[in-house]
Structures are given as structure tokens and as C-alpha cells.
Amino acid sequence: MTVRLQNEGAEAAGETAAPPVLAAAGLRVAFPGRGGRGTARAVDGVDLEVGAGEIVALVGESGCGKSTLARALLGLVRPTEGRVLFSGEPLDYRSRALKRYRHRVQLVQQDPSGSLNPRHTVYEAVAEGLRIHEGATAEEERRVADALSRAGLRPPERFFTRYPHELSGGQRQRVVIAGALILDPEVIVADEPVASLDASVRGEILRLILDLRAELGLSALVVTHDLGLAWNIADRVAVMYLGRVVEVGTVEEVLSEPRHPYTRALLSVLPESDAGEPVVLAGEPPDPTRIPSGCRFHARCPVLASGEAEREGIADRCRTEDPGILPASGGDRAACHHARLHG
Amino acid sequence: MTLLEVEDLTVSYRIAGGEAPAVRGVSFSLEPGSKLGVAGESGCGKSTVALALLRLLPKTARIGGTIRVDGEDVLGMRWGRLRAVRWAGASIVFQGAMHSLNAVRRVGDQIAEPILLHGTAPRAEVPERVGSLLERVGLPRWRARSYPHELSGGQRQRVMIAMALACEPKLIVADEPTTALDVMIQAQILRLIDDLVGGQGIGMLMISHDLAVLADTCDRLAVMYAGRIVEEGPAAAVVADARHPYGAALSAAFPRIGDPASRRAPRGLPGDPPDPADLPVGCSFRPRCPVAEERCAEVDPVLYPVPGGRSAACIKVRAEEPA
Ligand SMILES: Nc1ncnc2c1ncn2[C@@H]1O[C@H](COP(=O)(O)OP(=O)(O)OP(=O)(O)O)[C@@H](O)[C@H]1O
Ligand SMILES: Nc1ncnc2c1ncn2[C@@H]1O[C@H](COP(=O)(O)OP(=O)(O)O)[C@@H](O)[C@H]1O
Ligand code: SF4
Ligand code: SF4
Ligand SMILES: [Mg+2]
Ligand SMILES: [Mg+2]
Prior knowledge:
The complex is a heterodimer of chains A (343) and B (323). Helix content of chain A is 35%, strand content 18%. Chain A is α/β, with parallel strands linked by helices and 343 residues long.
């Protein structure tokens, strides 16, 4: 079911498909409670794969655990349970192995002000990762120039001595991307790479990510709450709700024929949506320190609230039976009793 | 009476080595109960217009033109009058203002402040008034006792809207009210804004770089580029069929989920908007315009009328419409 551009040929020829470059298996990340609060189960059982050359979008409301999952995949937080796999091998958390890993799997953070040091020039910002991983190298200048031009900042020399405040938002985001590219990673994990950019600039940055995939065979996990971004660049999309992936599939499947009531609600409230009456869910996403029993979405679910679940005879299951963890690949698209009746 | 009339507004910022004309002759008007959207890329002058309306610009800014709120000239107003107008006549929800709530004061006290300052309600009735404002923005009354850090981004933005409503203004200026909020919270806030404006005859100027949000919320839409309005008209029509090449590029940059044309084909607009201190000669959009011609370097187009109650500042539009 999964679309793996690079593997399609191999699979068709009946060869064993390569393992996904990056995977989460039964992954959980819990943060201990403070000040009388319970443990926050930020990632609460996730199976997810990113194939070679594949772009996967991870979408969901603020606070649903996207960044925590991304950080776990990068080895920046250690899972409480489950594993992160790189090319099929479990991640080794000893410091030298981890450092090597972070060379191959790069984080691209949302810039604007956050990830660039205002006192560092573009050159220093881009060279930083290289210096950390490889020390001072003779070819540093050439590699900085290469990375900048791959990120679309040309001619690169013109940007060497500039400071972040002398660049536009789009140019700063390109500098952040260049800083990741300089290490020739196999995978990039981009956390809201275009969130605060203008639509015009956003389009340019997304095109860059597609070009990098085509030219370098990069795989990417893109974390976002922008469903249009998924439509623009991703092969597959995983929808996260309160620590779980509740729907996963190809972009066409999930965005054109959403099955989980939560995915449907998200799509219906997009301003440009023509998916009928918008389903505006009340309140904020519930709290990861108090995950509801049964289906974790049941308190906000329009299918349950409208009586539809009752008529289908699944209302009790919605309230008491956890629809379970979706497998990373194969068949089961939505963790929902209702969707499974109609699947 | 027209609620807000802006005529030939200009704003220049004093900068090292000269002047940056950030707003270069902007005119529009707004009727009670209607919503005007202002779109455009970062840096095109949207926030500067918003700040000018209530004379909140820094001292380095020089303003020209006329601004009338309810027929009253804002730029000529004395301070005392201006302060009254700022809350009771018109109020503003700033870009990123949810981060500007005072961290060590309860939100109820912060909402009460303008009411006390302007004596809009007797002191004894203020807590009741704060409670009802919170309810109007969809928060329970007990939230008055919360500190900002106990609220989510969406809840803080609701508090900001409650503050803006505190003195029952007739005009609300909302600068990027949903930017940086996720889609569900954005939908909640937009629905709230819609109810407030429609239900109570408030006029709203809503600024956003998100064309889709404006098309969905506003009656009319103005697209700004390099300190000018380059296109104006009914919001839905401008987004669906922009007449200025810049409006068209902005509109095309919005992915339409389900539309095969934008699948795996993100569209942007190469280049950056010009630096206000260093504007190109002729049409200021020329360096990025996909359909520019030689003569575009010779004219600086003004807004020409287009059928359907619209206008656009492009010589090609004028060519179509003989005066
Ligand atoms: N270090 C931490 N300690 C305690 N709780 C945490 C920690 N980091 C994250 N959380 C909680 O875990 C949940 C998921 O957070 P996360 O940052 O992964 O969300 P997100 O989906 O990336 O949201 P956004 O879209 O706002 O960036 C939230 O409820 C958050 O408050
Ligand atoms: N205080 C200031 N001093 C100098 N220039 C400014 C100041 N504020 C804004 N500008 C400049 O004025 C132009 C318009 O800015 P702004 O109104 O904030 O745009 P927008 O809100 O559309 O992003 C930009 O070029 C910006 O750099
Ligand atoms: S399992 Fe039930 S409550 Fe959960 S999303 Fe499906 S229908 Fe709604
Ligand atoms: S006047 Fe010329 S450069 Fe300006 S928008 Fe029209 S076609 Fe483009
Ligand atoms: Mg996040
Ligand atoms: Mg602004």
C-alpha cells in the first residue's frame, strides 16, 4: 500500500524491499508529571515508516505530539517504550553512535527567529554542523558554498557574510536548510518548515524540498499542521491525535477520502474547503496527562455526538474500547470503530 | 455614516541614511457591519496601515493623508480625545499580541483595565462585565482568575479579542489574528469574529497574509504590494480571479486540496518584495512580474477600475478598459 518511489521497481521485480529508512515501532514517550500533574503521554504508541526517497507528512493539532515524535525519531529524546529503527537497525543511544546517526538524519527547524543565532553570519551558521561532526576541514568553504546553492541561495558567496536580520524570512529558512544539507543526510526531519512564511515563499521552499528529493534521493518527514502542504509535496500522510496516529495512507486516500472523523473535521475547517458544513471541534485538544478511555477522540467525536455511532451499535465500544495502534503499513487506515465498519 | 475613511495615507519611517516610504498612498473605506481584508506578503505595509489608523506608530514615522473614524479626523485629534477613541471608537488586536499579555496579572484584571480607565461601566459592575466578555469569546467566566501561562495560544487570542471588545468599539482592527494558530483553533477564532461583526454591526479591518482566510471571512479584499493597494474588490472574486499579476500569484500559491494541478506542484513567487527605501522605477512589481513588458518600466500604475466593482493597478488592466 505504501508508495515508495525508489522501491517500486524492486518490489515489482519480486526482490525483497529494502527496510524503511526511518521507522517508529510501538513508540511511546512519556514526560513525568510535575506540580501534581500526571504523566504526560505525549507519544502514546506509534508505528510509522518513512521509505527511501519518500516524503511523509505528519499532521495534527497543536500539542498532539508531532514534535515529540519527531524528536524521538531524531534520537533527541529517548522513548519510554518501543523503538526507533534506522534502515531496519534499532537506534544505538551511546553517544558516538548517536552522533553518527544525527549526521545522517538531520533536523530542519522552523527558523524565523528561533534556530539561527543573530550574531552568526550565514557562513558560520551553515558551517556549524560540519565543524561539530567533522572538525575543521580544508574544503569547508566549498561545502558551505555547495550547501547554500543547493538550498537556492545563489551565488552563495554573496550570502557568506550576511547576518540573519539582513535576510528575508524565506532566505533565513533556506539558510537553515543549507545547514542541514551540508552533512549530506539521508533523511531530513522538518518541523513546521514553512509555518510562518508567506504563501509565495512557502511555495518556493516546498519546491526546494521536492527538488532535493529528486536530485539527492532524500527522504523526509515533514511535521506540520498545514494539510495543504501535504497535498503539495508528500507521498503519504499520518494524522496524529493525542499521541497516536489515527489515520495513515497515501495523500490521495487520506485527503480526498478521509475515514477518521478527526481527519474529516480537520479538512472541513480549512478556509478553502468545500467539504460541506465545517465541523468546528469545541475546545482545545485534550490533555496528554488525562487521555480518555476507549477511543481517545470520543469526547469530541461528531459521529458519536450526532448519534450515528449509537445507531450503528458501536457507541459503547467508542467509549470503552481503544481502537488500537495502526500498523505502519498495510490495510488498516483509520483507528476508528466507525471507519472500520465502512472500511 | 461611513465608519472608517482612509484617503491617500502615506507613512515613511526615518532610517539610517534616509527615509523608507512604507505606505505610499492608500485609500479605502469601511461601513458598519462589514469586513475588509488586507492581504500581502510580509513587509508590504499592512501592519503600518493598522498602526497608523490609531496613531500607534513609532516616533520615527511620518504620516500624511486623512483618516476619519465616524467622520472624525484621527490625525488632527488631541491626545485626550485620541485615548478615548482608541478603546471606545476603535480597538486593535495586534499581530502576536497573545504573547504580550502581562504574565504576572490575571487575565480578568487585564480585561478590566480599559473598562476602568474609560469608566465604561461603574466599578461595581466591572467583574460582571469581564465575565460576560469572556463568555462572548467562548471562555468560561472562571477563566478571569487564570494567568496567561495557564492558557493555550488560542485561549490567549480569545482574551485579546475580549480586551478589544471591552469598551464596545465600533471598529476593530485585527492584525494577523490567527497566524501561528493551528487550523482548528483558527476556525474557532474566525467563527467568533464572524459572529461578533455580523451580530453587532461592528466594522472590521482584518489583516492577514493568508488569502484563504480573508476570502472566507471578509466581504471585500485589498491586496497590498510595496506600500500600495494593487488590487481591490469583492473578496471571493479577487481570490478566484485576480486581475493584478501579484494578486494572481498570491492566489495561485494557495494549495487547493483535491486539485490535481497543485498535487506535487507547490507554486510560489520567486524573489522578494522590494525594500521600501530602494523601489524599482516604473511598476514596483516589475522585477517579479511574470508578464512584465518594457513599458512597465515607464509607468507607475495607479488603481484602474475593473468591471464588477473592482480595481487593479496594472497597465494591462487599463489597456482592457478604455477610460
Ligand atoms: N518536556 C516536556 N515535559 C512535559 N510535557 C511535554 C514536554 N514536551 C512536550 N510536552 C507535552 O506533550 C504534548 C505534545 O507536545 P508536542 O510539542 O510534541 O506537540 P506538537 O504536536 O508538536 O504541537 P505544536 O503543533 O504546537 O508544535 C503537549 O501536551 C506538550 O505540552
Ligand atoms: N519602526 C520601523 N522603522 C523602520 N522601518 C520599519 C518600521 N516598521 C516597519 N518598517 C518597514 O516598513 C515596511 C512595512 O512593514 P510592515 O507594515 O510591518 O509590513 P507587514 O505588516 O505588511 O508585514 C517594511 O519594509 C518594514 O521593514
Ligand atoms: S472510534 Fe468512535 S469515538 Fe472514536 S473516532 Fe471512531 S466513531 Fe468517533
Ligand atoms: S504594470 Fe507591468 S509589471 Fe506591473 S503588474 Fe502590470 S504587467 Fe506586471
Ligand atoms: Mg511542534
Ligand atoms: Mg505585519
